[in-house]
Backbone:
């Protein structure tokens, strides 16, 4: 996967981590850089440009992908507790196989802890598999519509 | 190349094209509804994920004077991609609901609508109580895929909604 090429450098400021590309997208180039508030017009990134992570009711939730199917909650906790107290973990199982489905949600109390976990763990290995770590929720973009289904509706690009 | 190899190459190329079309650039839409009408009114659960990343969730029942729960949140591209991955790996697109049990007044209703890349698929079927219903249906293999996919999607959506809003939706 093009996105998982190891540790990503800290971005300037804390702008728009939700629009970072290459978490698990298959066709995103890695050299798209975040510059002070403007983003390239690649369709993927532009879709969420202008929004940033969204706080949840009591904390900040991080979304983990590429989780090994044999992962247990403890494996997630071990990796993520390093960056802050984990208030909540969901490691959902595949309903058919009983193995981990491949994603997890981790909640931290503070933005800094969550951002730290994202910066440090995204693209690293967990149980031998490369994980993607990013925000789970983002702020609505100014021009996003509800995008109800409809034949012929345009792709939603900014 | 031999004819067989050329033929296989063409198929592989076509598949790659389709796969390539199913990128994050495309509109991705998924909606799932399950519900019935009865003693406690129109009891239903529905979630809808729009191309903008907006996730809408609704859960309604009049049981013990409950009222509608509606929640809305924007999920990140990472979550959208994972939803796509779950759907794609289920092979739901291969299925055909023409042999599945139709919704009736008593049997409740499920709707699953997915728009991904070039595909736009919609399934309608009665509520499925358990794998027993799946096993005794006319198309158990197909219905099993549907059953597990909807379970997996529900699981993801519930986690998102319950963590974001700190509520426990009715499973």
Residues:
């Amino acid at each position: 996967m093009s996105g998982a090429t190891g540790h990503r450098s800290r971005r300037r400021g804390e702008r728009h981590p939700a629009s970072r590309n290459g978490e698990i997208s298959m066709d995103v180039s890695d050299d798209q850089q975040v510059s002070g508030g403007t983003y390239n017009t690649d369709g993927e990134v532009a879709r969420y440009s202008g929004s940033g992570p969204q706080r949840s009711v009591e904390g900040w939730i991080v979304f983990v992908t590429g989780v090994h199917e044999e992962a247990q909650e403890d494996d997630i906790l071990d990796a993520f507790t390093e960056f802050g107290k984990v208030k909540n973990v969901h490691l959902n199982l595949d309903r058919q196989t009983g193995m981990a489905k491949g994603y997890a949600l981790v909640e931290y109390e503070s933005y800094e802890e969550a951002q730290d976990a994202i910066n440090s763990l995204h693209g690293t290995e967990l149980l031998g598999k490369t994980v993607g770590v990013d925000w789970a929720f983002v702020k609505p973009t100014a021009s996003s519509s509800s995008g109800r289904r409809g034949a012929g509706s345009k792709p939603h690009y900014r | 190349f031999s004819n067989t190899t050329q033929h296989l190459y063409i198929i592989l190329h076509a598949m790659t094209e389709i796969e390539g079309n199913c990128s994050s650039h495309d509109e991705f839409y998924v909606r799932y509804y399950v519900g019935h009408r009865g003693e406690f009114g129109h009891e239903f659960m529905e979630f809808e994920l729009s191309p903008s990343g907006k996730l809408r969730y609704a859960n309604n029942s009049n049981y013990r004077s409950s009222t509608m729960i509606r929640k809305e949140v924007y999920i990140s591209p990472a979550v959208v991609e994972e939803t796509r991955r779950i759907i794609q790996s289920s092979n739901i697109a291969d299925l055909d609901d023409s042999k599945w049990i139709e919704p009736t007044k008593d049997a409740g209703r499920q709707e699953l609508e997915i728009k991904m890349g070039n595909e736009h698929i919609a399934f309608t079927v009665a509520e499925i109580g358990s794998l027993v219903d799946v096993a005794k249906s006319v198309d158990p293999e197909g219905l099993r895929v549907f059953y597990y996919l909807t379970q997996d999607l529900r699981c993801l959506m519930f986690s998102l909604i319950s963590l974001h809003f700190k509520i426990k939706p009715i499973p």
Remarks:
- The beta strands of chain A are 60-65, 86-90, 103-108, 125-126, 129-130, 132-135, 137-138.
- Confidence is low (pLDDT under 50) at residues 1-50, 145-158 of chain A.
- The CA atoms of residues 59 and 109 of chain A lie 4 Å apart.
